[in-house]
Amino acid sequence: MTEKAKLIAPRLPRGFEDRTPGEIAAVGAMIDTIRKVYERYGFDPVETPLLELTETLGKFLPDTDRPNAGVFSLQDDDEQWMSLRYDLTAPLARYFAENFETLPKPYRSYRQGYVFRNEKPGPGRFRQFMQFDADTVGAGGPEADAEMYMMVADVMDELGLKGQYVVKVNNRKVLDGVLDTAGITSDGQKLTVLRAIDKLDKFGPEGVKLLLGAGRKDESGDFTKGAGLTPAQIEPILAYVDSGVPAPGVEKGSNAHVIATINTLAGLIGGSEAGLQGLQELASIFGLISAAGFSGRVILDPSVVRGLEYYTGPVFEVELTFKVQNEKGQDVVFGAVGSGGRYDGLIARFRREPVPATGCSIGVSRLAHALKLTGNLKATEPVGPVVVLVMDKDQMAGYQAMVVELRKAGIRAEMFLGNTKNFGKQVSYADKRNSPAVIIEGSQERDQGIIQIKDLIAGKEAAAAITDNAEWKAARPGQFEVKRGDLVAAIQKLLSEQ
C-alpha cells in the first residue's frame, strides 16, 4: 500500500498579499486619477522590466558574494547577477542613459509598477508593493522641483484629500551646511545623522537626540547604535530640526513662516557654500509656490531629509494629516504616502557628465489604504458577466449563440459551464459572480420564442421584503420575459437602468 502524497499547505510567503477583483478595481480607479494629473502636467508613460542587472541598482549592493541584502537577486546562466527592482528611479536612470541620444531633454516620464524589498516584513510593511513615479531628467533649475510639489498636491486634491495633507519640502544642501559647521565630515556618520533625523515623527526630539549620540534602546530592549556625536555637535542639529516650528501668531506654510525659517537656517549653516546654495534654491522654490497659489498646501519643513543616499538637493514628503489608531490603540497622524527629491548624481553612474534629475514617488498601496479610511476609495466588487443558464444540455449551441450575441454588443457574458443539474446552484453561481442578470430558456420558452431574464439586483431588493418562501416562488421578483430576438436590447436597457 503506497503512502499518500503529502499535501502542500496553500500559504503566501511573508510580506506578500493577494488582491481581490474589488480591490483591483478600486486601486485601478485611483491610478487612473493619478495618471490623468501626471499627463496634464506633460508627462508621458514609460515601462521598465521588473529585473535589472544588479550593478544598475548598485547603491543597495552589500559587500557579499550573493547580493541579497535589500534586494532579491539571482544569477543568470552567463553568471550575470540580476535583481528585482528596489524602486522605479534606478531603472529610469539606466533607461535614460541607455537611450540618451534619442530622448528629448528634459525628459518627462511617469512609471507605475511593483517594486521589491528583501527586508523584514511587518504590519503595513510589504516585500512587494506598488509605486507610481514621475520624473524630469535634464532640468537643473528649481522650477522643475516646484512643479513636482504642485503636481503631487493636485493629485491629492483630485483624490478627495483636500485639506487632509501637506507637502513638506526641504533641501539636503542646507543640512550638509549644518553638518559641515558642526564638524561632521565622515560619509558614514552623515548617513547615520540623516537616518536619525528621519525618525523624528516616530521617536520625537528626545529619540533623535539619543540616535545622534551613543544610541537608542527601544521597548523590546533592542539597541540601535547612534552617530556618536558630541553634545556640541548635537546642539546645532537639534536647532536645525526645530527651525521649522512657527513663532506664535505665524501660520505654518505661510510666506511669513517660509521667510522666518530660511532666516533661522541661515544662522545655522555658518559660511557653508552648499548650505547657502540650498537656501537660495528654497527661496526660489517657495517664490514659485506662492505665485502659483500653492502656499499652505506646500510648506517648508527642515525635518524632512529622506533616508536614501542619492538625494542631492530639494527633497519632499506628502504627509496625510488626519489621525488614525496604531496597533497600540494610540491616535497618530497617518503619515507619508509619497516622497521624492533631486538626484543629480544618479545618472552620472552611467555617463561621465552630470545629468540633473528630480522626481516624485507615490506609494499606491499605502495611499489606497488612506483613501479607504477617508471614504474616498471603496473596494466594491465590479459588475460581473450576464450568465446564460443551461436548462437543456442538448441545446448548448443555442445558449452559446446568446453569449456570442451579447459579447458582440460589448456586454460581458458567459454560459454556465459547471454542473447544470441544479438550477438553484446556477443562480447561486451568478450571485457569487456579482452578475447583473441571468438568461433562462427552457423547452417551454424555446417553443414560444421567448426567454426569461432575471434581474438579480432588483430581485435581491424585492426579495428582502418577502418573508414567505412560497410567496417568493410565486412572485419570482425581478424576473420578466422578452422575445428571443430582443435579448440584446433588453439586457442593454436593464444595465442602463441598473
UniProtKB/TrEMBL annotation:
The UniProt record lists the keyword Signal: no
Positions of the Aminoacyl-transfer RNA synthetases class-II family profile domain: 30-382
Enzymatic class: ligase
PROSITE patterns on file: AA_TRNA_LIGASE_II
Location relative to the cell: Cytoplasm
Top-level taxon of origin: Bacteria
Keyword Ligase: yes
EC number(s) per entry: 6.1.1.21
Catalytic activity entry: tRNA(His) + L-histidine + ATP = L-histidyl-tRNA(His) + AMP + diphosphate + H(+)
Gene3D superfamilies: Anticodon-binding domain (3.40.50.800), Bira Bifunctional Protein, Domain 2 (3.30.930.10)
Principal subcellular localisation of the protein: cytoplasm
UniProt keyword annotations, A-Z: Aminoacyl-tRNA synthetase, ATP-binding, Cytoplasm, Ligase, Nucleotide-binding, Protein biosynthesis
GO molecular function, one term: histidine-tRNA ligase activity
HAMAP family: His_tRNA_synth (MF_00127)
NCBIfam families from the UniProt entry: hisS
Family statement drawn from the similarity comment of this UniProt entry: Belongs to the class-II aminoacyl-tRNA synthetase family.
Assembly: Homodimer.
Name of the protein: Histidine--tRNA ligase
Source species of the chain: Devosia neptuniae
Origin organism lineage: Bacteria, Pseudomonadati, Pseudomonadota, Alphaproteobacteria, Hyphomicrobiales
Gene this protein is translated from: hisS
